[in-house]
Design a protein that fits this description.
Blueprint (H helix, E strand, L loop, with lengths): L8 H14 L3 E5 L2 H8 L5 E5 L5 H10 L2 E4 L6 H10 L3 E4 L5 H5 L1 H6 L4 E2 L4 H19 L6 E4 L35 E4 L1
Parallel strand pairs: 1-2, 3-4, 4-5, 6-7
Length: 190
């Protein structure tokens, strides 16, 4: 896992809480070792590492040995991690939006059958996943939906109003067909 800032706190805690049961070793890398140490404490199934993410050899060494890579770095740094994930055929999870750099390596991601699960933070990931679950539950009970209102930060882009189903297409480059949420519902901005 790259990044041990405030947004990483709960995820690191969750991973460490389940590490023994799931037979995980959780490696947390950040430019500030004290930040990492404050998050992992004395957890037995953890490794703390400190280096500048722009250092290629160090970054690649950790990515190459990982089973899965999580990046909670600033969005501008995800591309460095993503390129190495493609090179070493590692799946990647991140809370950030997909930018043009990540989109540019989509053919390689698909060719290598990798899962790049992006936008998995509150805005819009959890908001969309929660909405999808509610929609599925309603449809499972033979109900119908007349409108959808989001009170979260994950708002539909202006150009997508009336075509809400495509809002999640690039949430996961590999499984984008899996995330078709809705056909066309009324979208109300609050």
């Amino acid at each position: 896992m790259f990044g041990a800032g405030k947004s990483a706190t709960f995820l690191i805690g969750y991973l460490l809480q389940n590490a023994l049961k799931e037979n995980w070793t959780v490696t947390v890398v950040d430019a500030d070792i004290s930040q990492v140490q404050s998050k992992i404490g004395n957890a037995s199934r953890s490794i703390a590492a400190c280096f500048d993410i722009k250092l290629v050899k160090e970054r690649q060494a950790y990515i190459e040995q990982a089973d899965i890579v999580i990046s909670l770095l600033p969005p501008s740094l995800h591309y460095l991690v993503a390129q190495d994930c493609v090179q070493f055929k590692k799946n990647l999870l991140t809370a950030s939006y997909i930018d043009e750099h990540i989109k540019s390596i989509e053919p390689e991601i698909l060719k290598n059958d990798l899962l790049f699960l992006c936008e998995m933070g509150l805005d819009p990931g959890i908001d969309h996943m929660s909405a999808k679950k509610m929609i599925d539950d309603i449809h499972g009970e033979k109900g119908s939906i007349q409108s959808f209102i989001s009170h979260c930060g994950g708002l539909v882009a202006d150009q997508l109003i009336g075509h809400y189903s495509i809002i999640c297409f690039f949430t996961t480059l590999h499984f984008r067909h899996f995330f078709i949420l809705l056909v066309s519902y009324t979208c109300i901005r609050k």
